[in-house]
Write a structure and sequence with these properties.
The complex is a heterodimer of chains A (270) and B (465). Chain A is mainly alpha-helical. Helix content of chain A is 59%, strand content 6%. Chain B has helices at 17-25, 56-63, 72-88, 240-243, 407-415; strands at residues 3-5, 45-48, 92-101, 112-120, 125-133, 136-145, 154-162, 166-176, 179-195, 200-215, 218-233, 247-261, 272-287, 291-303, 309-321, 352-353, 356-357, 362-372, 387-399, 419-430, 434-444, 455-461. The chains are: A mainly alpha (270), B mainly beta (465). Chain B: Keywords: Membrane, Mitochondrion, Mitochondrion outer membrane, Transmembrane, Transmembrane beta strand.
Chain lengths: 270, 465
């Protein structure tokens, strides 16, 4: 969005309080959603819970096309539709809720860079590796559609992602190389976290939500092998970090799950 | 001897030396020469000079009737019909008929030579246009092969490349030899449309095949169509209800249409009636969309005193979803605008959300029109005949039905909240295809949410209520 448009949207957003019926849209949890999208969606959910803002999760097969930027998840708040974590953080800031006032820009940029890296790794692992793509990814992505549309859409998306990965020079990476990179990234994060409860200060920030979203998804989702999650489990402080956030912010799910949970979470770490 | 050129069915010469010459050669014993009666009586007609680059069987079908003629008048009439049929095939640019007495060694005593002189269209014709309109410019390229395999098969290709959208279409048409009304065609296309009244953009990529055939007085068309539809919001300010419809879907449907048309013209008819009934069933041959759609169109015209025409028309339709998936915005009906219920903005009647019209699953619309020539008849006999004044009364309703209720409840829903309008205006006829209208409309029965266009409204199109 241009600067003027952003300023305008912030003004409009600031005028109204957070409604009760705010909704978050993502692809179908059981059959359709992929690793990278699940990670982003969980990050946004964690962030909103950290801010104490209620949001309902709604799964739609066409969530990706409904989104104004083409990326999931997006939230529908009052009259506004905002997608992706960055703009959502700014949107909530305009409404007066913010977690990262104390952070300086360098730290923020550093964390964002790490997460962008992890996201790209997930995309590469899913789409660029032929085995994973044909056995898991393409089928999941196009499961709501009938023949021959499912093949057309799946191949179209694969071509798009591979082109993007080519542009950043990652397309040639094999699965092993990707696992290696993720491992290194996690080592770096682990060192950064140390023994603190959260990455910055004593309070969680949106960057904690971002890290949680990605790591939790990797830990609880199985690709062709469990290797990725094993490598993260080897960093114990990251594991306990994820558990802590799950316990603190997603705890009430346990109680409401029997009543038909609306909250989109897969298997838990417990 | 004399020759008769029959290019059109002009009034016959009652007497004259041309016809009289034949009488000398005949020994029929009919010396009477009554001026209003036909003099000659020839039995045998042979056709010569068929030189085409096509298979001859398809052409002999069209001119076969000429062989049945019994006398000169018959020959002329049937040759005229044959000429029309040859032109209808779409392979000839020009057809001329020459009727002469039979000459040569194998000439028959009472024979006539009927010669069809034809000029074929070129094998490949192309066209290139640029179009500007609606904040968009585009370049349109067309290619046509009017007769590829020699039996009046037609292949057309059109490609449009614009600043905003690109679309193309390829179509193959083949009539049955001897029965031009029985034909089939295959189309492949990609079409993009922008619908600002719903803030929606729709891209359709599809393939369709259709068969047409006449049964007694009706014309039937059976079609299978497979379309990949992509819907998206036209602007960021689109309502959420339209945003929810964005995405891809596949529609595979079978449809059947029946048309009975006894009007003397498609635009501004003076007499006759039209009945069109169309059914479409989607979902049983694959695809995501699953529904049954019915719609009909009736028009009746009657000539009144002083060259004026009274015309009444009724349209209606219903969309029934099959299964639990709701209907898509691309399948629903829309109502309103200069081509349907006048006095309202384009497709701006019925269910809407934040200013975007979502269409409805059932509708009806009716109109009564009185067409009269322009007052004081300026330009009579020429340009003035293309214009008509017209007084109209339109009414209609568009809504969603609750399919759990019975038909009585449906009818009462369609009967409540009727929108209607009346007014007068001028109609201009464009060839035999389209018409332009400029009307002064007064809309009534406006419900909250409808957008009206009262006062002067301009409309251009092919199909009007």
């Amino acid at each position: 969005m241009s600067l003027a448009a952003e300023a305008f949207v912030s003004q409009i957003a600031a005028a109204e309080p957070w409604p009760q019926n705010a909704t978050l849209y993502q692809p179908l949890r059981e059959d359709q959603i992929l690793l990278s999208d699940c990670a982003s969606s969980l990050a946004v959910q964690a962030y909103l819970r950290m801010c104490g803002l209620p949001v309902r999760v709604c799964c739609r097969a066409n969530a990706e096309y409904m989104s104004p930027s083409g990326k999931v998840p997006f939230i529908h708040v009052g009259n506004q539709v905002v997608s992706e974590l960055g703009p959502i953080v700014q949107f909530t800031k305009a409404k007066g809720h913010s977690l990262s006032d104390g952070l300086d820009d360098v730290q923020r940029a550093e964390m964002k860079a790490y997460m962008e890296l992890v996201n790209n790794m997930l995309l590469t692992a899913e789409w660029c590796d032929d085995t994973t793509a044909s056995e898991i990814t393409r089928q999941r992505y196009s499961s709501p559609y009938s023949w021959p549309l499912n093949h057309i859409l799946a191949y179209q998306k694969q071509w798009e992602v591979r082109r993007k990965m080519n542009a950043i020079g990652w397309a040639g990476k094999g699965l092993e190389q990707v696992y290696e990179d993720v491992s290194q990234c996690c080592q770096a994060l682990s060192q950064r976290l140390g023994t603190q409860p959260f990455f910055f200060n004593k309070q969680p920030t949106e960057l904690d939500a971002l890290v949680f979203g990605h790591l939790f998804t990797i830990l609880t989702t199985r690709l062709t092998t469990d290797e990725l999650s094993e490598r993260i489990k080897s960093c114990s402080n990251l594991l306990s970090f994820c558990r802590r956030i799950e316990q603190t912010y997603f705890e009430e799910d346990k109680d409401s799950q029997s009543a038909g949970s609306q909250y989109s979470r897969g298997p838990s770490l417990f | 001897m004399g020759t008769v050129h029959a290019r059109s069915l002009d009034p016959l010469p009652m007497q004259g030396p041309e016809l009289g010459v034949q009488a000398d050669d005949m020994d029929l014993g009919e010396p009477e020469h009554e001026p209003q009666q036909e003099v000659l009586e020839n039995k045998d007609v042979r056709c010569f000079s068929l030189s085409f680059q096509n298979s001859e069987d398809i052409l002999t079908y069209e001119i076969a009737d000429v062989f049945q003629a019994k006398n000169l008048i018959d020959v002329m009439k049937k040759s005229h019909d044959a000429r029309q049929r040859l032109l209808r095939l779409g392979i000839f640019r020009q057809v001329e008929v020459v009727i002469d007495t039979s000459e040569g060694e194998d000439a028959l005593p009472n024979g006539l030579d009927v010669t069809f002189e034809v000029k074929e269209l070129r094998r490949l014709t192309g066209s290139y246009n640029t179009m500007v309109g609606n904040n968009e410019g585009s370049m349109v390229l067309g290619l046509k092969l009017p007769n590829i395999f020699g039996r009046a098969e037609k292949l057309t290709f059109q490609f449009s490349y614009g600043t905003k959208e690109t679309s193309y279409g390829l179509s193959f048409f083949k009539p049955q030899a001897g029965h031009f009304e029985r034909n089939f065609s295959v189309n492949i296309y990609k079409v993009t449309g922008q619908f600002p009244w719903s803030s929606l953009r729709e891209t359709d990529r599809g393939i369709s095949t259709e068969f047409s055939f006449p049964i007694w007085k009706t014309n039937h068309t059976v079609k299978w169509e497979g379309v990949w539809r992509e819907l998206s919001c036209l602007a960021r300010t689109a309502s959420f209800a339209v945003r929810e419809e964005s995405g891809h879907s596949l529609k595979s449907s079978l449809s059947h249409a029946m048309v009975i048309d006894t009007r003397n013209s498609a635009i501004l008819p003076k007499k006759g009636a039209l009945l069109k009934v169309n059914q479409e069933l989607a979902g049983y041959t694959g695809g995501d969309a699953s529904f049954l759609k019915e719609d009909f169109e009736i028009q009746v015209n009657r000539r009144l005193f002083w060259d004026s025409v009274l015309s009444a028309s009724l349209w209606g339709g219903m969309l029934l979803p099959i299964g639990d998936k709701p209907t898509s915005i691309a399948d629903r009906f829309y109502l309103g605008g200069p081509t349907s219920v006048r006095g309202f903005s384009m497709y701006s009647i019925g269910p809407q959300s934040e200013g975007d019209y979502l269409g409805g699953e059932a509708y009806w619309a009716g109109g009564i029109h009185l067409y009269t020539p322009l007052p004081f008849r300026p330009g009579r006999g020429g340009f003035g005949d293309l214009f008509r004044t017209h007084f109209f009364l339109n009414a209609g309703n568009l809504c969603n039905l609750n399919y759990g209720e019975g038909p009585r409840a449906h009818l009462s829903r369609l009967a409540e909240c009727i929108r209607w309008s009346y007014g007068a205006g001028i109609v201009l006829r464009l060839g035999n295809i389209a018409r332009l209208e400029l009307n002064y409309c007064i809309p009534m029965g406006v419900q909250s949410g409808d957008r009206i266009c009262d006062g002067v409204q301009f409309g251009a199109g092919i199909r009007f209520l």
